[in-house]
Amino acid sequence: MIKTFIYQLSETILRGEEMSWKRGAYPEFTLEDAVATLFLLKTPRGRKQISEDLDLGEGSVRTLLKKLAKLELIESKQKGHYLNEKGLNVLFQILTLFSEPAEVEKVENMPTYALIVKNPPQFKSIDLRDEAIRYFAKGAMILVYKAGEIVFPEDERPLKETLPRLAEDLKKLSPKEGDLIVVTWAENRADAIKSAIHVALTLKKNELPKEILEVGE
Predict the structure, then answer these.
(1) Better pLDDT: 1 or 127
(2) Please, which residues bridge with residue 80 across strands?
(3) Residue 172: pLDDT band by 50, 70, 90 thresholds?
(4) Can you give the residue ranges of the PH0730-like N-terminal domain (predicted)?
């Protein structure tokens, strides 16, 4: 009976911890969350909506928004939080490095997002794919735009030969010669978006505006 009671107590504690996490009792967030939030706040959004969009606890979102406000990047009104002039300037600087993740043709029937990394440094595709998976993606493709085609950098094989609909979607992102294209997919939309951002940050973190880097400090 004592063992049964201890087991039930342990289960209750674990369920309580899980519920607390879902309610956002642990205010933790990543640089990827901060960048994704800047993209979201081009239009006003409430804290609950941000929490749902990023699959992030409301406590974490509250802390993140407080930091963004302290850095004078966002303001609030009845409709929600939004980027002010300084915040829009920081976002513009980020967009000179990589684009906002865009939803594209599904891969493996999962939510799939893509972004363009501009003027990429030298990279190894396998390392970048590993980074995406480490950040909760189920899979990733690292592609480049070369001579008017989206190709795999290892052998310059055109993506359209195997995934023509995805290749067509990616061309709508208007890549330029030499651009790197990150495609990530995951079981939920938030993980697909943030894993793509994670790959971009792996390549471009050192070029980010200091204001966004300060959010994570």
Answers:
(1) 127
(2) 77
(3) very high
(4) 30-87
Report yes or no: 116 and 175 within 8 Å, Cβ to Cβ. yes
Cα–Cα distance measured from residue 191 to residue 134, given in angstroms and rounded to the nearest whole number: 11
Identify the domain containing residue 48 by its residue range. Answer: 2-92
With H, G, I as helix, E, B as strand and everything else as coil, classify residue 112: strand
Buried residues in 157-175 as b, exposed as e (16+ CB within 10 A): ebbbeebeebbebbbebeb
Per-residue CA distances from 132 to 97, 129, 156, 160, 191 (Å): 18, 5, 21, 22, 10
User: CA angle 116-118-124, nearest 5°?
Assistant: 80
Among 92, 123, 141, where does a domain finish?
A: 92
Q: What is the CA radius of gyration of the chain?
A: 20
